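S., here's the first fold you wanted:
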Amino acid sequence: MSPQDRRGNSGRPGGKGGKPTGRPSSGRSGAPRSAPSRAARAKPAPEPTVDVHDPDGVRLQKVLATAGLGSRRACEDLIASGRVTVDGQPVRELGVRVDPGKAIIHVDGMRVQLDTTIITIALNKPKGVVSTMHDPEGRPTIAQFVANREERLFHVGRLDAETEGIILLTNDGELANRLSHPSHGVSKTYLAHLDGRVPPSLGGRLLRGIELEDGPVKLEKFNIVQVTPQASLVEVSLHEGRNRIVRRLFEEVGYPVTALVRTSIGPIRLGDLKPGRTRVLSKTEVGSLMTQAGM
């Protein structure tokens, strides 16, 4: 490559050296050049945004601090760094005020729970307990584990009586409905103890999907945890919430479930929570659930 080539636009096209003008050639020798109009020189106007400021509201940093996002100063840093949106609009100004009862706020893409009266609880449902707040047959219900709560709680989905594991209860009706509906794609994970030694090929079959009497079903994930000549332990994930869906799925392929534990709902894991015990989800956990549910 010649020195002229390496200079690129450092000289005039066809010139003999000299300083660059920074102006492109008109392509016509000696042609008069007209100054560009003011409109042509102007930068493109930014896309209009919705004004989220509510003069009668509360300062955004105070709302975030009250919601448990950190100190007032830490919340100011969140705003200034562009990590906060209000009603879908990015906010960087510290003087913005919002109505906590109406504003939809996200931090780093995660919904912030502003209503301090909302509560969501994780319960490790024991075996032999039905997933209702009242049972006309007098069987043990999940209500006994939250009897000390004053809130009116809804259970998010169900587990059959013989299945153990995590079930959520909340007084947020919209959250409960969205998490229960398969269209929002909230995944549930289970550990299933199966009768018989499952072959590795079974996973591919279940991931592709099989037909049950009430329609097709397919797994999102399938992992063989442990096998013996007589039994298998597998971990599976799916979005379905139909009645006894995991048990019916494995019954259909010839490996009946002998024990079943749900270990997670979306990002919320059972962890080391003991059967019959509960814990209140953190604001961050609730925010992640709301985000997954499209709220």
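And the second, which I think is the more interesting of the pair:
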Amino acid sequence: MHCQLGQYLHPRKTHCCMRCHAGTYKAKDCDGPDQATVCLPCASGTFTAVDNTMSKCFQCKRCRTALQQIVETPCTPKQDTVCGCQKNQYQIDSESEYFQCRNCSSCADGIIASCSKNKDAICRCKPQFFLSRSNICKPCNSCTGEDCLLCPSPVATSPTTSGLNGNLVLGTLVAIFGVIFVLCIARKVGKLVQKHKKVSFSSCVSSTKEPVSEVGEERNEIPTLRPESQKETELPINAKLGSQEFPDCVRPARTTQLPDTPAILYTVVDHVPPSRWKEFVRRLGLSDCDLERIELEHRRLRDAQYEMLRLWKLHMGRAATVEHISCVLNQMELSGCSDAVQEALLNQNSPQPCSLHNHL
């Protein structure tokens, strides 16, 4: 039985009921198709932002004064609290609920770009000064390493003109030979990669994982690349996941299915940076619709992250593997997180009588 837009199926699946509007919650299901759902308004300090079938309203968010957050828009029955920063401040990690407010830099010699909501001001420096990483102008004669590239000319170490010219010539020659050397190395590496492309494995694949014990799942199956020496039949490619292939990762010869335990899922949550979490689950295959729904149902960030990972594992079935997660993290240039996740999972399961691989 299908319901129209703005309706939901009664728990007994006998008829459709109207959803409650934003600012209210469902107190009782409708008794029949011609009768109204009992909806009650949200109490003070709670809200629902969209039409819903929730049995209670969400708690309003509280701005964190310890992080210098202020209330920009107070909570209403139809809208959550909007937190922000004071004037002449900007947000660090603005996508997170725990963003921090910092004071904008005061540029004494002029501004290249003004301070905005999410970025500090970019200061202008006087001649023979450079902008340091802390957004402070410092004299060029105090620069070190890459900071000296920000100065208009090399710092003179000798009062004579001949010494300055000698440094310029030497620096130019070193730069030219350096570029030539890098190009030669890149060309050789490119040929090597092209030559061994068909037989090399991706660096995100672990060589110690157990082989997959079953072939041909109905949902979300990931193909496995086998070495020639094994001479085993390759797993079929599920057409449904064709659009979710990861071009940067060759399929591992062996895969480790992600165990269905909360501790394991929380281990993955703890090793992915909160600021990159949405990118991570989108790459895994969750839609923005799934993310918005889960965030609405789970207001705490950690609970929402756990639910997103659990939903992905439910969709993937046996194809939800540790290697799948590692591939995504490596594509995001988070190889350190990938190694940490695999090591944490192995350490977490080492004292148990059966290891992570026995869950396959």
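Why I say that: Residues 155-162, 198-248, 351-360 have pLDDT under 50 and may be disordered. The longest helix spans residues 161-195.

Talk tomorrow,
H.
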